[in-house]
Each structure stands twice: as structure tokens, then as C-alpha cells.
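Data availability (excerpt). All sequences and predicted C-alpha cell strings are deposited with the supplementary files. A representative entry, arginine--tRNA ligase, is shown inline so that the format can be inspected without opening the archive.
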Amino acid sequence: MRTVHFSASFVRRPCRPLPTSAAFVPTRTLARGMKTHFAPSLLTGVGPVGPLGCWGRAGPPACAMAPFRGSPAAAASVAASAAASAMDSPALISAVKELFEEALAAVVPAGIPTQLAMVAPTDQKNAQLGDYQCNNAMALFGMCKKLGADNPFKSPRAVAEAILAALPENELIKKTDIAGPGFINVTLNDSLLATTAARIVTDGVAWLAPTSRKGKKVIIDYSSPNVAKEMHVGHLRSTIIGESLARTYTFCGASVLALNHVGDWGTQFGMLIEHLNDQKAAGKATDDESVSDLTAFYKQAKARFDEEDEFKDRARKRVTTLQGGDKESLRMWQEICDVSRKEFSKVYDRLDVNRLEERGESFYNPFLPETVKELLSIGVAIESDGAVCVFPEGKGPDDENVAPLIVRKSDGGFGYATTDLASIRHRIDVEKGDELVYVTDVGQSLHFQGFFDAAKRAKWWDPEKTRVEHVGFGLVLGEDGKRFRTRSGDTVKLASLLDEAVSRCHDNISQRNEEAYGGKMSKDEVSEAARIMGYGACKYADLKNNRTSNYVFSYDRMLELKGNTAVYLLYAHARVAQILVKAGVADEAGMKVALESADGNIPLNMDKILEDGKAVVHITAPQERALALHIARLPEMLDDTLDGLNPHRICEYLYELANFYSSFYTECRVVGSDQQKSRLLLCESTARVMRKCLDLLGIEALYRL
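C-alpha cell line:
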């Protein structure tokens, strides 16, 4: 007999209230010999949790209560409960799958493999399909037909009926029905959805974080600009995609090591150091000014390298002395790196990217000779025309149209592939990463496939133990459909792009402040709002796209007030915040506190939204239910985001959340209604989830616009 322990329940049931001081209440036997121990919750009148962490099928009232502990009037925000930290919060879809897998195990005949539940969320716009759909019946019937006379089912619909008959007793599901030949539609209990919304206010959003990544170490390689070059628009994609994934992994319980694989080594440093040396010798620059304009400095060095044979010879010799450890060469190399690092930091500060640990190409230099030596010794690499190469398995130097991975050049130098092989080995063997994620453009896909394959053949990487992924992304295009460039044809500097976005937002907000609000916002408030909106608009315009796709960058489109833009979402959040002010639950002073707080939560007058010290949400209208269901689907969206490493899923969820809230607010009166407290809780729950999603995208929230 299998026993499952649960620390708390949070569905209000029409049963005798449990004493909150009790350790456990009696168990009851469930389907197929399972037992569940029911722990009392801090919620008044809470009953048992169903099997496998699922909430029951019996239909309790469509309201839920969560207690507020402490003095409501004095509270600046609601403290997280002890129960929240102890209780896992699985995604709804996982709970539904577990129930159906229990049922499938009971109905699958002998000779048929164990079935995983094929459960998918339904479109919320089509309520008749329920909330989820189980699609196992037809596939299972097809398998059972092979049993011939031993097939116990006459049709897929009969399979669906058997699955439902075997479904364990539970309180998660309100109703089920079979559609068409065997699709099982599942509708969840309203009480579960109401409780989730209430608990977000009492215990914060963190309790809804999925636990699938908890305890894992994830190493994410992103941004990775080149020394002596300014960051351009192409770096925006790598930086913000990687940062969003890092934030999401962290929220989901992983330990994240964010690495900046800076291009700080290579043959180009020969010309850069020689040019720097010549400038200083001619007295044209002091140490502080020598490479202050990175772009100009690099262009000057490159022009001389291309046009002056004597300079080219000196540059090549300088590479040799640098790689040999010459102190003066290393000093000038470090000077160039330091100036670049300062410029990178300015951009990272603007983008709120502060977790990156620099680990450039030079970090792996000591490991390169041994990397090549071992690849040769185990036969993964071979010598070809003086170079050391890794050919695709089964291929060699005599095969045509085969591009090998060059791990040591014929002149004895090492390339990107060698560094990347040393890095993947270090990240697995030394850093002990459970998941390795590399965020670069899709144009490097073949390179990553090559060194991933080499690492696997060398047995440095076991795909069964470590997840290794290349997160490729497409190009940023101009409105002409070509690579996004300046009018002169130069690459767009990232700093310039951010400046332009903030400037346009400042003009828009200033005009709106005067026309719609009579100048209530101060100049500082306008500037701060423009900064948040400008940076947020740039990030969201990028992240909302499937990362593998190219996208057209347009200031006009990304700053539109309607549609799937950061501007629309920031206004949506600000509207929710102002409703709380209108209801007297919050005030403008609290908005300023929220802007400066770590979680962004608004200090609330809890007396005005709690009922007898408890957060109670009633679901009385379809718009309330749709909003609460979408909120409760947050965990499965986050799991989906990390499974596919696609931050655009967060954007889709956030945009849909804003639309569900808009429908709710349009159809359900909040302030002055007989459901004011309940609906204000839904407003606050929505705002908190909005802020968390914005935060996962690296975007700050606005409370007034």
C-alpha cells in the first residue's frame, strides 16, 4: 500500500472545521489501496486533500477563504504563511494528469503498455470544452484492437467511459463529459480557483511556483559581447532572453549560475594592443583616454591592420607574445578589457541585468592543451593537414563536403571550438551543472551541434544525466525587412536604441500627463515612467516573439497603447493599482513604497478586503471564473516556458491575463458592488501575478500613468 503525505489543503468544504492545532486527521482509504494523510490547514473549515495532491471532485461552495495573520490595519503587505512554504503547489495540469494516469492504470488490459495521460488545456474562449481535455481513449482503443477477441472495448467512447468510471475519488474535478468519439472534457471546481486567487494575496505568488526545477543547478551562458566593441542590437536578444530564463529558473527553485562568455581573447588583440601602444608612444592618449571610444578605436586598429603591412606583422607577433604571457602585453590587454567591461556594465545597469558572472574565453586558456590531447588520445579527434579536427562520426578527411570541428589550427593556435569544448567539460565536471543553456543566434546552430556531439563522443557529456541546450534566436530586422541598421548602414548601438525608446516614451507620457491628468505627475515621475516604459517596451517587443523567428523592430508599434505591447500591459497594471486607490484599499504614498520594494507589492488596508480576518473570494460570474482559472494556470505556463526555453510563453500568458482582467472589470462592478471585497482580492491577485510575469521578463511595473 502506497502512502502519500500532504502538509495542507486549501479547498473549503462543507464539513466540520478542523482544529488548527492538530497534527493530522484520520486517513481514509482511496482507490486501489492508496491512503492519503490529511493535514489540517490554517484555513478555517478546510477538509482533506485528494490522492496524489489533487483536490476533490465533490462540489464545495464557489468561495474560498485564506486567513490573514497579524494586524490587518498596520500591515504593509501580507506575510507568507508557514503552510505555503510547506505545501507543494503542482500545476493544475499535473494534478489532472495524475488522476487520469491512476484511472488508465486500472483500465489498460494485460499486454498493453502503461499509458501516460494525454491531457491538454482547452481554449478558455470555448467554455463547453471544459478546462482540460484527456485524449487517451482513441489511441488506447487502437492498441486494444490488436488484442482481437480479448479486446474489452467496443469503441473509443467505451474506453473513455471506462476511464471515467475508474477515476479516483477527488475534489479537483467538478464535472466531466465525453465529446465526439472519446474526448474527455474536464471542468475544475470553482472553489479551487477561488482559493488560489485568495492565497496569492495572503501568501504571495511564490507558493504557486512549480517545483520541477527545485534543487537543480542551471548554468546559462548569455549576452557574451566582444571586448573592444560596443554592444549592438544583436546583443539585446541574447541578453534579455538569457536574463528572462535565469529569472524564471530562479523563481522555480533552481540555483542559477549566469555566465557572460565574453570574447576577451583571440588574434584580434594583436592589432588592438599594437595600436594602443602606438597611440601612447605618440602621446595621443593617456591611459584613461586611450580606448574610451571603443568603436572608433577598433575601426582604427582594423584599418591599419588591413592597409599597413608593417603594422600587420607587428600585430601578429604581438599575438604570440601575448599568448606566451608577456607582462606588458597582458597589461595592455587587461586595460582594453577593463574599459570594455565598464561600457558593458552601463548597458547591463540600464537593462537591470545584475546576475551575470564574467567568464570570458581567456578563463579556459589553461585547459585547452589538455582538451586537445585527450581528444586525440581517445580517438575522437585526428590530425589532418597539420590541424587537429573532430569529424562527424563515420566521416573523415577523405569525405567530401564535410566541415570538421577544428580544435587546433595548423599553426598551433586554438579556436572557438576548443574553448567551447573546454567550457562544457568544466561546467559539467567542475561546476556540476544539471542543465546547461547557451543563448546565441541560430546562425551558430551547426557549431553547437558539432561541439555537443564531440563532447558526447568523448563521454564528457551524458545526455541522460545533463540537459544541454542551444537556445537559438533569429535576427532583428528593420522595417525594410533587412538587418536592423542605422541610415548610414552601421550596426545599431544598443545604448542608442534604448535612448531613443526612452525619449519617445517621455514625449508620450508628458503629453498624456498634461492632457489627461492636468500635470499631476512631477517631472521626475514622468522621467522615471519613461525609463521604465522605454526599456520595458524594447524588451517586450523582442521577448513576445518566438525566439527562433526573425522580427521587425518598430518604435511606433512597440509603443502602441493597444495590442500586445509592454505599454498596454503597464497601463493595465496601473489601472488595477488605481482601482485599489479608488476603493480606499491603497493610496498614492503606498504606490511609491511599492516602486522601491523588492516584491513591488502595494501596502494595503486589509480591513477593507478581508472578511472576519480572512481573504474570501466568491466566484459568481463567468468573467470571474475565467480570470481565476487563468491565474491558477501560472505554474503550468512556467513549466512550459522552461521545457521549451521559450520566454514568449510568459508574454502570451501575461497578455491573456490583461485581457481576462479587462473582461472581468467591464462586466463585474468592483467598487460599490455587493462583492466588493471579493473582487478587490481578485484585482490584487491579478496585479501580483502581472508584476511577477513582468519581473520574469525583466520589466518593472508602473502604478500610475
